[in-house]
Amino acid sequence: MSAAAGLTAALRVEVLRGELAPGAPLREEDLAARTGHSRHTVRAALAGLVAERLAVAEAFRGVRVTSFADADVVALQQLRGALEVEAVRLLRVQHGTRWPDRVLAPARAAVAAMAGEPADDWPAVAAAHAAVHAALVAAAGSPRVTEAHDRLHAEMLLLLVHVRPAYDVARLVAEHDDYLAQVQVEGEPAVRRHLEHSTRLILAAREGDRA
Q1: DSSP string, the chain
Q2: Are 18 and 123 in contact (CB under 8 A)?
Q3: 158 exposed, middle or buried (CB, 10 Å; 0-12, 13-18, 19+)?
Q4: What's the pLDDT tens digit per position in 106-165?
Q5: Which stretches make up the HTH gntR-type domain (predicted)?
Q6: pLDDT for res 211
């Protein structure tokens, strides 16, 4: 791994653990002094974060950790939903309304992993939550759909890390157990209902944070 890639990975962890807040400036000079890397390496590392949409680069403002307006939340959820709808459609074409255990096993394992995360470690719960949906999309076997969904992974995690909806882990696990059952039988409506519910909770949590 190159020095720049290693620094990108380290900064990614800081961002996704909430140690660098949304909108926080990422200054080359400060990061070089803190990490001991050259400014050239820092610049390349920041470009990696921007490519992952964990940071934005703006003229005259430099690089900052990505922050979300409500419209960004809705748009991100809509795109995520479109990809998941297509994945579920493909799965229903392949397997009908009752999918084999081998197809569901990765998503079920991700739900079980989520159940094992400590309730007070929201970033870990959010990562496990995202893994359930990633496993479901991957099960469809479409490289393009999976690749497009994977590109949203870091951005979605960043959103969830900084906004904790009104969930406890047991409730989140139960909802996703139900979701894996519902998408087999209902297909697209179950996906849309699940993600619309998620969007409402995220927006409500953001409103509570602003109050």
Answers
A1: --HHHHHHHHHHHHHHTTSS-TT-B--HHHHHHHH---HHHHHHHHHHHHHTTSEEEETTTEEEE----HHHHHHHHHHHHHHHHHHHHHHHHHHTTS--HHHHHHHHHHHHHHHTS-TT-HHHHHHHHHHHHHHHHHHT--HHHHHHHHHTHHHHHHHHHH---S--HHHHHHHHHHHHHHHHHH-HHHHHHHHHHHHHHHHHHHHHHH-
A2: yes
A3: buried
A4: 999 999 999 999 888 888 888 899 999 999 999 999 999 999 999 998 888 888 887 777
A5: 1-68
A6: 65
The tokens describing 111, both together, are 């739900």
- Domains of the chain in start order, with CATH, are 3-65 (1.10.10.10), 70-210 (1.20.120.530)
The Cα–Cα gap between 203 and 88 comes to 25
The residues that bridge with 64 in the sheet, in sequence order, are: 25, 56
Provide the terminal-to-terminal Cα distance of the chain, rounded to the nearest Å.
44
Kindly report, residue by residue over 16-67, the tens digit of the pLDDT: 888 888 889 999 999 999 999 999 999 999 999 999 999 999 888 899 999 9
What are 136's two structure tokens? Answer: 């479901």
Going from the C-alpha of 177 to that of each of 51, 88, 163, 189, the distances in angstroms are: 33, 15, 22, 16
Per-residue pLDDT tens digits for 161-197: 877 777 788 989 999 999 999 999 999 999 999 999 9
The phi and psi torsions of 65 (rounded to 5 degrees) equal: -65, 140
